Amino acid sequence: MLSPTLIWLRSACRFWNALAQGPESCLWRAVALSDWGDALARNVRNWAWSLHMCLTHLGYPLHVDRRRLPLLSIADVMRLHTAREQQCWQLCNVCPRTCPSQGASLCKYLRWFSLQGAARGNAFFRLRMGLARVLKVVRFRLGCSTLPPVAQRYQGVCRAERVCPCCDQGALGDEYHVLFECPATRAARAPFAHLLPPNTPMLLTLLD
C-alpha cells in the first residue's frame, strides 16, 4: 500500500505532465506556465514552487526552463521517494539526539516511545484521570509537546539551539532531558527513580 505522501506526489506529477502535454491554447497550461515562471524567477511560493522544491529535495534531475513545463518521469520520482523513505527508517538505529534533522521525529518515536519486541503496554487511557491529563500524555508520547525541539521547529531555530529554558545546562530540551536530566524536574522524578536503570533508551517503560 502506498503512503499518502506518495499518492499525493504521484497525482501531482500526473497532473503536471497532463498540463505540460496540453495544447498551447489550454488556459490551465498557461496558468501553470505562469506559476512555474514566477516560482523560478521570483521564488513565489505557489503550487509549482512546492512541487519544484519537493522534486529538488528528492534529488530528481529537473530541467529548469521558464518557457516550458518539463515532463516528469513518475517512475523515477516514486523510486527516489521510496529510497528516501527507507533511508529515514535506517536512521532509527541512530540516537535521536545525534541523527540528522530529516527523520528525527520518526527516529525519536521508535527509539524512545515505541514498544520493544514483545513488550506490552498498559491501557493508560482507561485510568481514572481527566481528559486534559490524558491528552497531555498522548501528545507527549506522540512527540507533539510544547518542548523546545518541537515548538521551535516551526520558528526557524537551529536544532542544536533548542535548549531547555528551565535550567542552565544548555542541553537540548527534549523528552529525555525533561524526564531524566533536568535539575528543574529532579524533585518530581525522584519518587520514580527506581522504575528504570540509568541511561535507559526507552521512555515508554516509564510512561506506562
Describe this protein's structure.
With 208 residues, the chain is mainly alpha-helical. The chain has two domains: 4-87, no CATH class; 94-207, no CATH class. It is 50% helix and 0% strand. The chain has helices spanning 4-20, 27-42, 47-58, 74-90, 104-113, 131-141, 148-151, 175-181, 186-189, 203-207. The protein starts with a helix and ends with a helix.
Keywords:
208 residues; mainly alpha; 2 domains; 10 helices; elongated; disordered C terminus
Largest sheet, if any? none
Shape: elongated
Rounded Rg: 23 Å
The secondary-structure element order is HHHHHHHHHH
Mean pLDDT: 79
Proportion of helical residues: 40-55%
Unreliable spans are 204-208
Distance N terminus to C terminus?
Answer: 31 Å
Query: What structural category do the secondary elements indicate?
Result: mainly alpha
**How many H/I helical runs?**
10
Number of strands: 0
Q: What proportion of the residues form beta strands (DSSP E)?
A: under 5%
Number of domains: 2
